[in-house]
Amino acid sequence: MRWKRISDAVVRRLPLYLRVLEEAKDQEMMSSQELGERAGVSPALIRKDLAWFGEFGKQGVGYEVAYLREELRKILNLDKSIRMVLVGVGSLGYALARYHRRKFLDDPSFTLEIVGLFDANPELVGKDVEGVTIEPVDALTTRVKELGAELGIICVPADSAQVVADKLVAGGIRAILNFAPVKLSAPDEVEVTNEDLSLELQRLAYYVTD
Amino acid sequence: MRWKRISDAVVRRLPLYLRVLEEAKDQEMMSSQELGERAGVSPALIRKDLAWFGEFGKQGVGYEVAYLREELRKILNLDKSIRMVLVGVGSLGYALARYHRRKFLDDPSFTLEIVGLFDANPELVGKDVEGVTIEPVDALTTRVKELGAELGIICVPADSAQVVADKLVAGGIRAILNFAPVKLSAPDEVEVTNEDLSLELQRLAYYVTD
Q1: Are A77 and B15 in contact (CB < 8 Å)?
Q2: Whole-prediction pTM value?
Q3: Residue A77's closest CA among B197, B80, B208?
Q4: CB 3.0 to 4.6 Å from A134: which of A46, A117, B113, B184, for a disulfide?
Q5: What are the chain B neighbours of A7 within 8 Å (beta carbons)?
Q6: Which CATH architecture fits A8-75?
Q7: How confident is the model at residue A90 (pLDDT cuts 50, 70, 90)?
């Protein structure tokens, strides 16, 4: 639990570092300069971030790519399996479920597993998405407990997102990724992130200047 | 063009600042400390980033939320309309097209408009997604020119992503958001970003520790 005290500002950057390191598989060492450029963070901040978790770099030499990658995976709990449920299997929910199920099935290093899918629409209930059957949303809390799910993804419309969040929390979910365009309230011990799919597009817009 | 010289490491963070400012609509001022905490960036780095574009903050007072928000929108070209095409209207492509079309139609401040949808599957061609008709991918280059599209989103399978990217570039696209699990090659003047939908999940995994 000691890591809990570390600011989310720090945690938020760790997956960016991990992605760069995973993309550089055939590279042995990487300087904080290069890691910074590729992750979009200043080298000084990277060194400061990593210092929270230990001593990873060698002065003047940089980081051992494979070692730092594995250490970051441990810090982010990506070295163990994490069970997730997704609620709202509309077009976005279906696409995300399919994307993450396939990633889980194809890539052994991807340990985030969607173990439950839920929807209020009876016509969707019973349908299969990459090996997971869609269940009615009514039993969400009970099923979350039974499945031992720790992470929840919300893809329902804005007006039902809070009800779903409450059910997930009641079921013992520790973190929520919310795609509904509404701010959710949850206990402090539950981490809630509102996802904005247009962030990258907004960044890319910068590059279309004449 | 002068902004072109600014590192992508800086550009990458601007939409994060913008999102925080947009979420704080009813707030008049914001300190770089608060902006930093909410954006996941150190206050010092925020001041350094913004200094590239001008003088926005007042010493000890912080930033005027509305003013900085509008300035960031200008810097990111979000004050003008940007035309996009999306290629590959499978489950993910359809979901993204629907999401961004609706956002464009519902939110006047969202100026990124999907003006063209393309797919290789004849059964999808002719179908409508929130007011845009899916076209055959064959004519992509010509249509990109005709539509005056500047930004392209690739949601096709890995093995056809490069061909699609080449057609987009030939059509004059300036930036590409690639969801295909493959590294794309493009001329230096075209900005290519490989999107990873699982980044946020990897961050949230941190919070499910016991």
Answers
A1: no
A2: 0.84
A3: B208
A4: A117
A5: 37
A6: Orthogonal Bundle (1.10)
A7: very high
